Amino acid sequence: MKRNYIIYTLLSFLMTWSACTMEEEPKFPAADNLFSSVEGANTVLNGCYSAIADFNYYGADFMHLTYFSSGLYTSNRDASLNDILIFQQTPSLNFVENVWKSSYRVIARANDIIDNLSLVELADVDEQNNILGQAYFLRGLTYFNLVRIYGGVPLITKTVTFETINQPRASSDAVYEQVITDFGMAASLLKDTDSQYDGRPAAPAANMLLAKVYMTLAGNKTAGETDYWQKAYDEAIKVYGKYSLVADYRTLWNETTSNITSESVFEIMGNEENTLRLHQLFTASNGNAGRSVWGRIKPNIECYDLHADKYADDPRIAATFKSEWVKYLANGNTQIIKSYPFFTKRNNKDKSYPWLNKYYINDHTKMNYNTNMNFVPFRYADVLLMLAEIENELNGPDNAYAYVNEVLARARASADVAAVEPADWTGMTQEEFRAAIMMEYRYELLGEGHEWFNDRRRGYEYFKTNVVDVHNNHPGYDFNVQRDVELPDNSRNMLMPIPQSEITANPNISAADQNPGY
């Protein structure tokens, strides 16, 4: 079923939060009016989606915060070279502040729906449950992001009053318990994939996120040390077969074919009028006729080299990285620029790094960065890689190959002439499979919002060895030049700092509650 939800009109009646501060301007319609019909409840739900797609959340700043601090990206923004890219973010850094504030805006709106819809029974109970399920899903996703980025955070699950607005930091365990509850509720209330509206999460999306929660809680422990791997499998297997891989990987990144595919589990929707900043963030500065793009985010050279060294003939390489592009000069002329790996010298803003091709503007003659392209943070290929990792932890690689080989077979077929790489996996030990699958997430999903989380969920030693050390020991860098930055070895970088505005405004959180090292 399809319904065209244009979800990004800011609704004047909805709550806006600053830190964990709620303001109503102007006053919004009474809850008993809004929640007396499916249409009214959907209006409030649209506000949740508007908040999650906002510039300060998934529209841009979630990418600024998590990509820059993942250790896998660089930037043409010089200021970021000196703070977040070398893990020197402060509690007052705008990205740190904005993601926190926007997250609580989503939570406030989801709480409003959950509290009020739970008090009424609408004529269409199925639709009522579906709206409730979406509110639980969005709240669960946002708390899941918060606890992984900041650690324990204020846990607010009811519409706030002035007496309850300032909450202390909850423990990480308590936040995870709430995330599990929210995704469990979402899975029980949401429609299935065959009846859910386009662009809205179906029940298996909640199962996928629950599996991710349990994989995160498992950390670097084996199945013999924790039952979280079994819990992860029990949720992930519910998603198997509910979606399907598109035939050609390249179509996932073409603006005309990327939205609402058979592979999409959940996507953040946008359009040219209410655009996400994908083109603006990921297209080279002066890379379009209007010279309206920023060129903020691009992969480090080890991302390209590791992928090319592993699978030289992998069609995903050309789909993922862009190394030749058109630059628009101030005099109106254009210039073809060849970047890494064609250009290997250092300290050149335009050439020393490749670009991420997935969100690079398709039509460089456009005068603006506006796009109809949605951002897809969760897709079915990720589920298959998750099942491969989980199965290997539980039982070794014998039955895990089938899942990852589905992804590899699609990759081979995503070329004008079928490639021979990446070849199917076989003959690995459990330890070899574990190392390989963690890298396969990167090859398949680079730039899709997972790097911060996947590389940290197995603990600091994994992050240090596979991100920090790999970067710092790469022979292609020259850390004496500005654009190449060396990453510090510091475990504080497993978390972001609690924003300074929250410490200042919330009497129940003090400087003593700040994360270690900040």
Q: What is the name of the CATH topology of the domain at 16-190 and 496-513?
A: Serine Threonine Protein Phosphatase 5, Tetratricopeptide repeat
| Beta-strand content bin | 5-15%
The description of the largest β-sheet is: 2 strands, antiparallel
Walk across the major sheet and give the strand order: 1-2
Overall helicity: 40-55%
Q: Poorly predicted ranges (pLDDT <50, ≥5 residues)?
A: 1-28
Count of DSSP-assigned helices:
19
Write the CATH architecture name of the domain at 16-190 and 496-513.
Answer: Alpha Horseshoe
Characterize the overall form. Answer: globular
SS class: mainly alpha
Q: Helices and strands, in N-to-C order?
A: EEHHHHEHHHHHHEHEHHEEEEEHHHHHH
What distance lies between the first and last C-alpha atoms, to the nearest angstrom? 49 Å
Number of strands: 10
- For the CA atoms, what is the radius of gyration? 22 Å
Q: Taking all residues together, what is the mean pLDDT?
A: 93
Oligomer description: single chain
What does it look like?
This protein is mainly α. Among the domains are: 16-190 and 496-513, Serine Threonine Protein Phosphatase 5, Tetratricopeptide repeat, CATH 1.25.40.390; 278-376, no CATH class. It is built from 19 helices and ten strands. Strands 1-2 form a two-stranded antiparallel sheet. It has a two-stranded antiparallel sheet with strand order 3-5. A two-stranded antiparallel sheet has the order 4-10. α8 packs antiparallel against α9 (203-218) and α14 packs antiparallel against α15 (401-413). The radius of gyration is 22 Å and the shape is globular. Keywords: Cell outer membrane, Membrane, Signal. Belongs to the SusD family. Residues 1-21 form the signal peptide. One of its GO terms (cellular component) is cell outer membrane.
